[in-house]
Amino acid sequence: MNTEAHYASKTLDDGTAEAASDGMFGWYRHTSGSERRAFWSCKIGYALDAMDTQFLSFVIPTLIATWSLSKGEAGLIGTVTLLTSALGGWVAGILSDRIGRVKTLQITILWFAFFTLVCAFAQNYGQLLIARGLMGFGFGGEWTAGAVLIGEVIRPRDRGKAVGMVQAGWAIGWAVSAGLYTLVFSLLPGDMAWRALFALGVLPAPFVIFIRRFVEEPEVHKQHKQRETEAGHSSSFLEIFGPGIWLTTLRTAILATGTQGGYYAITTWLPTYLKTEQHLSVVGTGGYLAVVIAGSYAGYLCGAFLSDRFGRKLNFIAFSIASMAIALLYTRVPMSNAMLLMLGFPLGFFASGIFAGMGAFMTELFPTRMRGSGQGFCYNFGRAVGATFPFLIGFVAQKMPLGIAIGTFAAAAYGVVILAALTLPETRGAQLKS
């Protein structure tokens, strides 16, 4: 089936395209009770996912000191988490097509909550590496299930805003994680505090009770499963590589690779560059982190609004250009601590805001029968490949200045995003097809 036929926008009786709701939050007034429950379950679920995931970044210095780890060993924990999350995201996408979006969301939340708790009981590096890898499997799966669920529930003209605001839950979870870290480490000695922090990772588990009781399966998915049952056959996840759709799958995977590769290139190595080569002391402080998180949340919200206002493709292109500029500015212009603190906001804004339209775009690109599989594969293929960028930058930086390596990889990644966006169809306002 040629997917280009799926992108007809919803029209009014006079034949004009349906306009998006007024303002960034005006769409929420038009939602039903079931839509609001789905929205909050996905947003809170993603925030809790981010909270559990970000714990590691705060406890790495303690783990290095406690277990005498090398930086390479500590970094491997993060890499393994990203790689297993990529696999988990793809598997969750397949599951969401088979057993439903809501059930898959429940499973993934329980999974990452349980294995975050298991991390608290690790007795050595090897045990923590395995537990964290298993946690990553659920971390990647939650995004896929939640993005497909909210994308199918919200009406076309507001889908970008709703899905993007769910994505903004990441910044909230990041902030909560930072707050809990500060609290726990102020109350307990380091060798106990890191375990207590991971133990708090079980908190998302009871949230599954709410999802199970109050969140309904999207109507478009229920109708599709009914038709499959009546026809006596079910679709295969391999269909995303089939005739008429494989090229969309390829281009979407490349788009996801560019966005995530650029993000990892900037966020992984910039702090090191600013500390070691520009000798700035504010990097890594609570104030700088707060500014970046605030910029990240604002970027998600604005990106969500703009993707419905001006289209998915233009949004990707604009945020890519801005992210390129920020990367080059950070790595080419000498700056003071005050200037760095001020630039933290646009760094978070553009590097995170580019993701706001991703969930809605992928939901609209794939038909219902393969939507979870397609979205899960493309986003997480990008995550797996993008996760190699920090390693590649570190390798290349042995032969060239670190700032040049960061700027080069970031520019290449966002250039790929622009090229991929130009080749894909615009889907703003598209009706979902089975």
Structure explained in plain terms:
- It holds the Pfam family MFS_1.
- It is a multi-pass membrane protein.
- One of its GO terms (cellular component) is plasma membrane.
- It is found in: Membrane.
- The chain has 17 helices and no strands.
- By secondary structure, the chain is mainly α.
- The chain folds into two domains: 32-234, Growth Hormone, Chain: A, CATH 1.20.1250.20; 238-434, MFS general substrate transporter like domains (Growth Hormone, Chain: A), CATH 1.20.1250.20.
- The relative contact order is 0.16.
- The model is unreliable at 1-20 (pLDDT under 50).
What features would you highlight for this structure?
single chain; 434 residues; mainly alpha; Growth Hormone, Chain: A; 17 helices; globular; disordered N terminus
